[in-house]
Amino acid sequence: MKALVYNGPGQRSWREVPDPVIQDPEDAIVRVDAVTICGTDLHILKGDVPTVRPGRILGHEAVGTITAAGSGVRGVAVGDRVLISCITACGRCEYCRQGRYGQCLGGGGWILGHRIDGTQAEQVRVPFADRSVYKLPDNVGNEEAVLLADILPTAYEVGVLNGKVKPGDTVVIVGAGPIGLAALATSKLFTPSRVIVVDSADSRRKAALERGADLALGPDEDVPAQVRELTGELGADVAIEAVGVPATFELCTRLVRPGGTVANVGVHGAPATLHLEDLWIKNVTITTGLVDTFSTPRLLSMLAAGRLQLPGLITHRFGLDEMQDAYDVFADPATTGALKVALFGEQGLE
Of 243, 258, 287, which closes a domain? Predict the structure, then answer.
């Protein structure tokens, strides 16, 4: 089969690799029908995630069809169309028993495209299949479903829930890429009074406004002053960091009000300064997190029932063998206007 292989910082190739095989009774082999690229994959290619070694097949979010299953798999079967979660869960360790699957101690957590070969391939092996794939309802298409593999649960759990968004809150989301826009969509489930989005790209600010943001600001617009003016000089109740660079994290700490919460979602590859000389007196809560995907069944149910709207998050579509072109488009959103890209195998087209 063919797959997208990481060859070291700045290097990738779409090439022939061995087909995956069952290695454990709880494994499933899934034919990839739809797959996407994550901002985390770009961080890996920059060298920000040194635990990813050269030779690894990238990718951790996909939809596909089960083609083989180990003898220990009971919840899904060959022929089932499934969502592959970005998080793999053994289901037995201390963290899994608490629903904190991202911290799995039994061989799971974020392993696809990280510690084992991932989903940007024609086929993928998924360990602990009963707890790591979700059978899809017939009325949820591949393109919709692939967004629930990572960005929707990540934005919801690590941004909105960790941020403790409540009715009437002022929420500021720094970063209007796919995660930021998913945070916008899921924060609205809690009826905040306003959602303000900050991004340097005109196209992404426009996308945020089209998807329900009340205000979209650029970094040259004195964002802290505008947020204070809108909130009676208090600041935001919740500031969600959705980029993963020091400047955006530090901006969030300047935007949040005393007693508020900074919810960091972005993947950071460099140190950020924590200005405790300003924050120590403000009762500010700062949260971090790797998604656990405990919310995936609920989000999938809401999507199937038409209660969760994801308008236009996928802006570019490719065939699976156009992986290199898809990476080029996704990595240059200022030029291409890309938000999320989707790639389809021959049997994944809808």
Answer: 287
Q: What is the pLDDT of residues 22-59, one digit of tens each?
A: 999 999 999 999 999 998 999 999 998 999 999 999 99
Q: From CA 142, how far away is CA 125, in angstroms rounded? A: 19
Residue 16: HSE in the Cβ half-sphere, 13 Å Cα cutoff: 0
Number of folded domains that form the chain: 2
* CA dist., res. 202 & res. 123, Å (int): 37
Tens of pLDDT, residues 290-342: 999 999 999 999 999 999 887 789 999 999 999 999 999 999 988 998 999 99
pLDDT tens, 80-109?
999 999 999 999 999 999 999 999 999 999
CA distance 256 to 240: 10
What residues make up the domain containing 31? Answer: 2-149+293-344
d(CA 52, CA 125): 17
Q: What is the CATH number of the domain that holds 127?
A: 3.90.180.10
Strands (E), 184-336: 194-198, 215-217, 236-241, 256-264, 285-287, 314-319
